[in-house]
Amino acid sequence: MTEVFLNSFILFFITIDTIGNLPFFISLTEGANIKKKNQIALKSVIIAFFITILFAYVGKYLLDAIGVTLDSLKIAGGFILMFIAIDILFEKRKIRREKKVEAALDEKNFDEIIVFPMAIPFIAGPSTLATIILLLGNYSTNIEFQLSVILALVAALIVSLFLMIGASFTTKYIPQQILHATSRVFAFILAALATQFIIDGIKASFNI
User: Fold this and answer.
1) Which of 103-117, 156-170, 181-195 has the lowest mean pLDDT?
2) Rounded Cα gap, residues 32 and 152, in angstroms
3) Are 183 and 189 in contact (CB under 8 A)?
4) 157 contacts: CB under 8 Å, gap ≥ 6
5) Using an 8 Å Cβ cutoff, are 137 and 73 in contact?
6) What's the average model confidence in pLDDT over 141-159?
7) In this predicted structure, what is the pLDDT of residue 171?
8) Within 10 Å of residue 189's Cβ, how many Cβ atoms?
9) Burial degree of 77 (CB within 10 A; 0-12, 13-18, 19+)
């Protein structure tokens, strides 16, 4: 269970891109007092959690209904996570998020940004949703492992929450170069995990 928790936590931490979200959170909440910033962070994390869990189980039944096997899901999920890792490495994801921030700032309403773009897609984005479907599908016959995946998601969201609450301090005292370098290191780890999912899916599909 510990291994499942740790692997799931790493995946969620990377796909949520907590560190990469910090500059955008600061931009979106500029002008708000500390209490309001904390409320935005807390509410967006809670909403993202319920969206992710709902999507995971609804998505699972949908995939079962259309006859998509777990092995196919592993391969497809692995490729999705690989593209996400490439996006992070070459900062394409950052560029897209900057555009979303600019759009939100044009008509800034602190209550409105809780759901979009904070909860969706910054926290519960396509990568996070794909990850939880993949992980829960991988452990579909083991309730304890599924619980470990959900606990890992909660842990990653709590870390994300605390980092957003301390965002001003973090970005003030930690150089941007270190934050970018950290994101790239995590992206390499994500690429390795994505490759493993693809290999496992291919082996199972062809009985290798």
Assistant:
1) 103-117
2) 31
3) no
4) 12, 16, 45, 48, 49, 123
5) yes
6) 94
7) 63
8) 14
9) buried
Residue with tokens 């290798």: 208
Measured in whole angstroms, the distance separating CA 20 from the mean position of its chain's CA atoms is 11
Q: Using CA atoms in the order 96, 102, 107, 111, what is the torsion angle rounded to 10 degrees?
A: 60
Long-range contacts of 181-189 (CB under 8 A, 24+ apart): 182/19, 183/17, 183/19, 183/20, 183/88, 184/88, 184/89, 186/10, 186/13, 186/14, 186/19, 186/88, 187/14, 187/85, 187/86, 187/88, 187/89, 188/85, 188/89, 189/10, 189/14
Domain boundaries, the chain: 2-205
Can you tell me the distance from the alpha carbon of 133 to that of 38, in angstroms, rounded to the nearest whole number?
A: 29
Tokens 């959900």 correspond to: 150
Q: What's the rounded Cα separation, in Å, for the pair 153 and 136?
A: 11
